[in-house]
Design brief:
Elements: H1 5-24, H2 30-52, H3 58-64, H4 68-87, H5 89-104, H6 112-126, H7 128-138, H8 144-164, H9 167-192, H10 195-216, H11 230-245
Helix pairs in contact: 1-8, 1-9, 2-8, 2-10, 3-10, 4-10, 4-11, 5-6, 6-8, 6-9, 7-8, 7-9, 7-10, 10-11
């Protein structure tokens, strides 16, 4: 499979889900949607654990020492989490989505298309899985995360389109642009960063995915967006240790 396949599949599921939503309305039982979400949460947890366990890869251990990889991920999560919390990333993202909805929702039928477009765009593109999945795909580590997101977005688009119409389908363009850009960034990093740095980034991303899984399973609403700076901190800590060791 080629780099970017995850975004292509995601766009397709949003379009198909939108069509189904417009055609079948609210016929999908709520318990079915909940069961599908739980199943996806469990699969997300499996993929997250697999990604997090790459912290034991030889490329990272050889670069920073046998005992340092876990400490690097720990440091990245702590420093990144503190930075994200102080910057209020999650709160700002949620506030931005609420502002857009309020700005374009005028309570009349003519605004339904725009409301569907804005609402779906925020749900499909603001979540942490957007960034984690697209970066992983771009780094050449597979599109499994985006495939999961594609299924989630497909079911969500059915629900949105059932009440908001064809504006939801238009949000597929935003998904294409945002995730396409993030995939390109991942591909660029894969060409620039050494294997040890990419491994640390992937292991840290795996821990963030565990947070996503906990949210899907309704166990705990982890503020995963506030932890996103950890993806920047992890390779920086690897570089710092490499310099110190040399």
């Amino acid at each position: 499979m080629f780099i970017g396949i995850g975004t292509v599949v995601n766009v397709a599921t949003v379009l198909v889900g939108s069509v189904l939503g417009v055609l079948i309305g609210h016929r999908l039982p709520g318990r079915t949607r909940d069961l599908v979400t739980d199943a996806l949460g469990l699969v997300t947890l499996l993929i997250a654990i697999t990604s997090a366990l790459t912290v034991g890869d030889a490329a990272l251990s050889d670069a920073v020492g046998d005992s340092a990889p876990v400490l690097i991920v720990l440091g990245a999560m702590l420093v990144g989490g503190i930075a994200g919390s102080l910057l209020k990333i999650e709160q700002r993202l949620e506030g931005f989505g609420s502002w857009l909805q309020h700005r374009f929702s005028r309570g009349d039928s003519e605004s339904t298309f725009v409301e569907g477009f804005v609402t779906a765009s925020m749900v499909f593109c603001v979540g942490p899985l957007t960034f984690l999945g697209a970066l992983s795909d771009g780094l050449g580590r597979g599109a499994d995360q985006l495939f999961l997101k594609a299924v989630l977005d497909g079911f969500a688009s059915i629900a949105f389109a059932a009440s908001l119409g064809w504006g939801v389908a238009a949000s597929a363009l935003v998904v294409l642009v945002v995730q396409g850009l993030m995939t390109a960034v991942g591909a660029l990093l894969g060409d620039v960063l050494p294997e040890a740095h990419v491994t640390a980034l992937g292991a840290t991303g795996g821990l963030l995915l565990i947070g996503v899984a906990l949210r899907l399973l309704k166990i705990k609403q982890v503020a995963v967006a506030d932890l996103l700076p950890a993806l920047i901190v992890a390779p920086l800590l690897v570089q710092l240790l490499v310099v110190v060791r040399n």
